[in-house]
Write a structure and sequence with these properties.
Helix content is 43%, strand content 15%. With 424 residues, it is an alpha/beta fold.
Length: 424
Amino acid sequence: MKAHRFLAVAAAAAMAVTLAACGTSGPGSSDGGQTLNLWYLSDNPTVPDAAKRFEAANPGWKVNLTDTPNDQYKTKLRVGLGTANGPDVFFNWGGSDLIEYKKSNLIVSVDDLMEQKKLADVFGPAVLQQGQVDGTQYALATAVEASMVWYNKEIFDKLGLSAPTTWEQFLDVIAKTKAGGYTPIAMANASQWPGSQWWSELVALSCGPDFWATLGTADPKIRLDDPCVVDAHQKLVDLVKAGAFNKGFNGLDYDKGESRQLFWSGKAAMNHMGNWTLTSAKEEAPEMMSKMDFFTVPAWSGAKGTSDMMTGGLAPMYSVAATSKSPDKAKELLYYLVNEDSAKDITKLGRVPVYKGTEITDPLVKKVSDAITAAPALAPWPDHVLEPEWTTEMLQDTQSLFGLSLSPQEAAAKMQAKYEQVHK
């Protein structure tokens, strides 16, 4: 596997902040090419406005919008991409998926769009790199996202707590919020990816930036059964045994809001999730905007990483499908999804735009932006950048760790065995 499957871990921290109904016609449609299908995640309400701006600038053209929740979207895209009724422009996560799309001739280059719109002037090299395969641009991003621990300031104040900066303090906060009658951390892990964010973050803290920086190379410095990985697994198990999470969390659905509602309602003191939590709060519980703050998962004695490291990546990213009958117009629509106007809209959602020079006025969004900028390393979300066969193993093993049905050593051994099988 080539190293370009992975985010440039150390560089990515600075990369970012320097700076409906499904249509019935297929891509391009048979009505003279006046319709474009756009598929995107339903947690991004800025997309319809971008589509309207495109339509206003292109009289006679119509954008059919299809918005879908996260886990349903993955299935929908897997089935629909490349078919007659699939998208012209579609959201994706880049990484290994982008490589597979290119290998299967499912996407087209947007290098010509880059040149026409001089996008290299407004997106940094590290941002553009994440949408490239072998140096060709196949996707463009709008924002950088990272995970952190969100907490309810009112609950913390009531219990006399402050944001922890060490692992020992973190465990103390968990114990005291639980003793105070609260679920310490809201969690919904039926779809497994929420748990993988914990896994990626804890492994990066335990093993240091070299883990992600070299895992995709021919000679990784750190194996998946290394003691530092086992230690990260033990820290995850320690959280479960400390009662950090709500009962039955491994069977709850994130897309249905089964973890967020615990946090919004004040039943849970914390929620470990990406900064799209701000978007969810503005839509589902706007009163929480004044009650929330965050801290990064703290390191522990002996960890090779530091508490200011984060886990994240670029999203949303958009590509043009090779099946589009109107690829030039599809590329123009993509431009409207990532241009300056959309960057401004993205900031209102609590996302951190990657379009250079975009002003961030919300103080909490600015704090997120500053944290990502200051992070010495930004480890990738593994399910976005690793091969599907290995990712499946990691997701299952991590969920089993949360369920206490695998030991830290057993999980590490299974992950390493699958890694070796995939990389023969």
